[in-house]
Amino acid sequence: LAPELALSSEMPSVKLTVRAEDQSTLRRLSPSDFEAYVDLRDSGAGAQNIPVSVTSRNPLVNVVRVTPSNVNIELSPVRKKIFSLVTDIEGAPSRGFKVQSARLSRDTVTVSGAENLLKKVDIVRAHVVLNGNERQNIVKPVEIQVLDGGGQILEVLKVEDQDIELTLEIREVEATKEVGIKAKLVGALAN
User: Fold this and answer.
1) Is the Cβ–Cβ distance between 104 and 164 less than 8 Å?
2) Distance (Å, whole) CA 157 – CA 110
3) Distance separating alpha carbons of residues 101 and 137, to the nearest angstrom
4) CA–CA distance from 152 to each of 17, 55, 142, 149, 165 (Å)?
């Protein structure tokens, strides 16, 4: 794909019909054993109908059919837009500790792609996962996720500034304990 062009839509999935000499080879196959791709080297802007090529990583397996054999794609000029980052922390630190504060190394990122997809961006979040054993301040790399209004990740868009870290200040929670209390009745009830 030429650097000044971008996909205007997600690439569709394809189904494969394959052949192998023995059944055990077929049973062990997974989608990762194949690579489906379209060659956009000589494509220009606009709607395109491009043939799908598939390679098998296993020499004992032959691809018999690809459905669909061609895909419709739309190519548009690349646009760029700067978005503010929203911190998204999944999980919690070790029991008895809490995240006191979180600070990103940078508050914005540049996202590039087709203009129609950039208009769909609702939120760009800096996602980090805590594994439950954090007991002190830490610095973690974040995964940048670009989401539309429905919460779906827009994988076609490219994030240009990915080297962002999140500094987490982790503090021990004040000691607390839950205790049960039985109420004592004083006096007598009315008849």
Assistant:
1) yes
2) 10
3) 10
4) 29, 29, 18, 7, 23
Render each residue's pLDDT in the chain as its tens digit; 191 residues: 777 888 887 788 899 988 888 888 888 888 888 999 998 888 888 888 889 999 888 888 888 899 999 998 888 888 999 999 999 999 988 888 888 899 999 999 999 988 888 888 999 999 999 988 888 999 999 999 999 988 888 888 889 888 899 999 989 887 667 788 888 888 887 87
The token duo for 134 is 């954090």
SS3 23: helix
CA angle 39-113-1, nearest 5°? 20
Tokens 């062009």 correspond to 5
CA distance 14 to 70: 10
Amino acid found at 76: S
